[in-house]
Amino acid sequence: MADDDDSNVNPFNPFEGMPMFGDISKMLAGQGPLNWDAARQFAIMSATGGDAAGLVGFGGAQPTATPNIDPTVRIKYAELANIARLHVADVMGIEVPDVEPSVATPEQWAVETLEAYRPLFTDMATSLGPSDDLPDEAASDPMAQMMAGLSKMMAPAMLGMAVGSMVGNLARRAFGVYDLPIPRATPALVLVPPTIDAFAAEWEISEDEMRLWVLAHELAGLALFAVPHIAEHLQALVREHVGAFRPDASAVTDKLTSLDIDQSDPMAAMQSAFGDPEVLLGAVRSPEQLAMEPVLDAAVATIIGAIDWVVDAVAVRIIGGNALQIAEAVRRRRSESSPDDKFVERLLGIRLGAEQTARGKAFVQGVVDRAGETGLAPLFADPEAMPTPSEIEAPGLWLARVSPE
Fold it and tell me: Sorted alphabetically, which NCBIfam families does this protein's record hold (predicted)?
């Protein structure tokens, strides 16, 4: 006799009682707030420029992998790093951690980066995860209950795909670790030779000169984030941002119903819509995130500006006249916004565009013009010296606050 008591049936599991789909739902239910298998596969797919058909488990061939890096390239980077390290330490006036440089393909960089920021992405996924609570008007609606359960089971996979794609797309452009100015728990110095060499060839720059420029950039980032109060300040801001999402299931519907579909190419319009994190994840920025945006922008601008100033000073010493050519080529590269920049900004709160770069450069140059090459020293030494949003626009105010009487 069948048990008529269905009080133990989970109303948020639309596949309850269906043997095969029930097993699938159990598997999805145990994946945590973010599906790391999906994140890893989409990171590799995006880093190699593949498509979803090339993913393991999706029935297609593997994406074409970048050949492993020749060991002699790693040795060369180690030699050049010894040169760059001394000059970076001299310009910054602080110690540069003695981290051995390693080399990686774009897909290796993507997988390493995904793992390095795992705690951060987990916090974000927890913040974005759908709630168990339904609105009162939907609590007795079986269809609403089913859709809520389906959304809850699919959210970790969707988040995994979004995070993996974002990291994979970053990997296709990254020279090293500090292209994304977020501290890692373990200091790292990871270079991506295929991308660096391809950029050098495109701009007709000597490979060794380009490698030295990138090493100066990465070592400056490594030294800056080795300063505890700088790393902790930015880490706290980013984690606060990713923890302050307020999921809104109606955001997807509202966005899609308000789309102005181009009748000549409706698919392009839909692809553009789903390139928006708010549509893909049903997330909208909260008042808390909007309120902290100026402070996070100020921190990122300061870090970008300080690293760029160090790189310019070091590059003139070790590269000479061609340093300006490399700086201009990299500036133009940064000015080219991409869809992954939008994801980094919306999901992590990190704005990486030309505006941020210009703000940081103007602040640091203003400090150096007023106080000389040692003018940034308080930033490295004083935990209270991180510039405020107002001080980023007025370097003199910052100097007045942090300079000794």
Answer: putative hydrolase
**pLDDT tens digits for range 288-319:** 999 999 999 999 999 999 999 999 999 999 99
Q: How far apart are the first and last CA of the chain?
A: 88
Cα within 13 Å of Cα(368), Cβ side: 16
pLDDT digits (tens, 9 = 90+) for 143-164: 444 444 445 566 788 888 888 9
pLDDT at 223 over 80: yes
Which pLDDT belongs to residue 314? 96
The residue among 185, 157, 190 whose CA lies nearest residue 30 is 157
Closest CA to 33 of 199, 192, 152: 152
- Of the candidates 241, 271, 273, 269, which has an alpha carbon nearest to the alpha carbon of residue 254? 273
Whether residue 102 contacts residue 71, with contact meaning beta carbons closer than 8 Å, is answered with no
CA distance 97 to 302: 21
| DSSP collapsed to 3 states, 97-133 | CCCCCEECCHHHHHHHHHHHCHHHHHHHHHHHCCCCC
10 Å CB burial of residue 115 (0-12, 13-18, 19+) is middle
pLDDT tens string 36-71: 999 999 999 999 986 443 344 333 344 556 788 999
Two structure tokens written together for 126: 């927890």
Q: Is 132 exposed, middle or buried (0-12, 13-18, 19+ CB in 10 A)?
A: exposed
Q: How many degrees, rounded to 5, is the angle at CA 209 between CA 203 and CA 215?
A: 110
As a residue count, the chain comes to: 405
- Alpha-carbon distance 178 to 224, whole Å? 10
User: Which two structure tokens, joined as six digits, stand for 13?
Assistant: 């599991």
Structure tokens, 159: 């988040």
The beta-strand segments (E) located in 5-62 are: none
CA distance 14 to 23: 12
